[in-house]
Fold this sequence. Notes:
The chain is α+β, with helices and mostly antiparallel strands and 355 residues long. Helix content is 46%, strand content 24%.
Amino acid sequence: MSEEKEQSSFEETVKDVVEEINEMEDAQSENAQLFDKEEDMTQRENKLDDDMFVQEEEEKMTQESVEEESVVEVEEVTAEEPEVVAAKSTEKKEEKKKEERVVYAHFDVDLWRTKMHREEWGIRLDAQRAQKDRQWTRDMDMIGEVKKDGEPYGFLGQREKLWKDKDPLERRFVMKMFSSGGYWRGSIERLQGESFANSHASKEPCPSYVCIFKHTRNLYRIKRLAHFPRFQGEVFGFSFLDENDIFQIFVIDDKRLTFGSDWMIKDIHNKVIAKIDGKFMNLGGRFKIDIFDEILANDKTFFNMLILFSATLRFHKNIKKNIKKALKELRITDAKVKLDDSESNLYLNPRKLSV
């Protein structure tokens, strides 16, 4: 029995040894296969790198050849066809000229800082002006001159006593324009009642003006409108009825982020048809008016309105302060607004008067 046991144990050990040898051979074969696979992968990667390098070199060569061909073509065109190049340059210049606006009328409005001008000297001059035209009242003060295309066009006068009134509810703004010979051309007045109503509704000072001219029976109103958002600046609107009863709408838009007081006049199509350029650091007030529309440049009602409006810009801040003070007084007191007769007449019903 002992011999049989020993023989069986010997056989088991032999089997174990054989199994271990087989396992080692399998592991070696697997390692050999992995090594072969890694070698194949490295060969493929090297081949791809070589192919990419060759492609990059070919692309560089093709780009250089294309650039050389284009340079040669440009040199041939410029050398063989100089007339074509000249024609292109002239076309560009013509396009730039088209973009530039044509000025059909130019006006210079110069408001004096002091009264040290020869046109202001002497009481006798005021009496002579009053004799020429009744529009020159005793409280008128000449404050500036107007030139059209470099030639004298007229003078501007203000009713100084009305503007210096200490009572904010009684303070009025009236500006008049006279010809070089001393005859009245037109006026611009701030409407107290309408200015207070518009300012109260919009919660900010909104002056309203009316323009009256000698040569036409129509009245023309210019109003400051509330602009939202407010950082875009100020905007005025006015309607215009010409002598042929053609109605037009215009906007006077404040040009922000500029030195001085600059305004653009735009039509219903948002096209700039005129410009008011206020000079920076001018103590009195100097404004240049350019009109880019040929028809409106010959309409004296239109350019006289722009002249009178530009003259109000010197007093624009003080006018808004006056409206603020007046509204504050109306809110905290029982004060009543009594309009001047010359202003209340502008609110009369024209249809009732014509019957």
